[in-house]
Amino acid sequence: MKYVLVLLICMVFFNCENKKENSIEKSKVPFVWEGANIYFLLTDRFNNGDASNDVNFERNNKTGKLRGFKGGDIKGVAQKIKEGYFTYLGINAIWMTPIVEQNHGGTDEGTGLTYGFHGYWTRDWTAIDPNFGTKEDLAELVEIAHKHGIRILLDAVINHTGPVTPKDTAWPNEWVRTTPQCDYKTYENTITCTLVKNLPDIKTESNDVVELPEQLINKWKSEGRYKQEIVELDAFFKRTRHPRAPRFYIMKWLTDYITEFGIDGYRVDTVKHVEENVWQEFKKECDFAFTEFKKSNPEKVLDDNNFYLVGEVYNYGISASKAFDFGDKKVNYFDNAFNGLINFEMKWNAAQLQTEELFAKYSYILNSDLKGYGVLNYLSSHDDGQPFDAKREKSFETATKLLLCPGTSQVYYGDESARSLVIENTVGDATLRSFMNWSDIQNEEKTQSILRHWQKLGRFRASHPAIGAGSHKLVSNIPYVFVRRYSKDNFKDEVLVGLNLPAGVKTIDVSQVFKNGDQIRDAYSDVNTTVEKGTATIDSPYNILLLETF
Question: Are both 438 and 516 inside the same structural domain?
């Protein structure tokens, strides 16, 4: 019955009978991080692939609403990859919240008891939390994703451990500080401080040699892997000649996921709360680990892309180009560190600018001040309490602006299915983190219509690096038509897009991209036509054209 349902969903929503997903063979389309379509999900909230791991470490006390573990896991993500969900959504990279072992206990800061379901309360960087799965599950996930042309991003936290709880002791004073709390008014008071009360801050500025925390030593011994962990640490510090300072232990543990599993990148948490030189050091170790993985596993190498690092510099916006302003100091996090930064400005730009203003602005900055780098655009996320469309009243507009905007796109899980971001009786960011609304996708016609729109735009974007990584040029305001162009080495990509067009027969000037006699296709309606006298005519019930050659 399960497989019949999967097939039915595929046929209805994914157009499985049409094997021609796009006119360019996938093998000939280069993967470009600057134009990627990344799906961001909370591992615990996406899909439960293994109900047997739902409760561990006696995390079974009653929590505040949406503040406990709900069962999502690594197997659940792999399951949806195998079903084709991401492929038909045009996703070519998946970013998962941290999967390392979390606090065993919880805290209550006025929100009700909260467990570390979100992954940002690390207890042991070297272990995968059993609520999320096993190392075998992760290895299978990466393998399955790569077979489907999908990259895997994990989430790196170096800034802090999990909070102190009745079950989780504080790390030694040589490792962490517990005061003062950040006031964010200066560079210093954003870095050498704790983000919030009871979230111990790793002393990332320190080069002092520290011993391993006693709780880790005892844990590893009980698990029978203490000697192996010590051997690996000794080898790491001998090779790198780094001091045995807190940050370098964590870098070793995080880069192990690269050499062991072949993950493709890290989204890096709380970047501006750590000294900028730390990220340059981290990049160096990530690059080394990725190179070693490729040498040891040549059959698993997807392409010649380098390891990808995208940073969360909270409140960074594309208008700032490379400089983030602390007030008393400006910092460039791009050079020698990050390929891109999360763009917190996009939601405001999408609301305040006309579509052409938005696209032209982003194309200009990305092809000038940020050339060679990128931004990760989003319109909703896991900790942004002011999303572009909290009530999900503008799902079609959200997709159009996000997926056709220059830059890398971040689809937050449920964007494509209008998963509600306003949940009654939640406190704070819990309202953004409900479980994925699979039932709506299966049963609600309105949800299915929204999903189809996201799928069409997503697949077009994934098929054409020109959309995210190319240059933008306006063809006409009325009708609104633009061109995107991208070229690298021997690959050239040109597409023409029309928005807000009349339903029915549409004739537009395509002479800036296509020649007379060219056979072209509208990827939105799957209607083909031939260019005549510099124009293309498409008869479809939609107000969008996504034109490509075939």
Answer: no
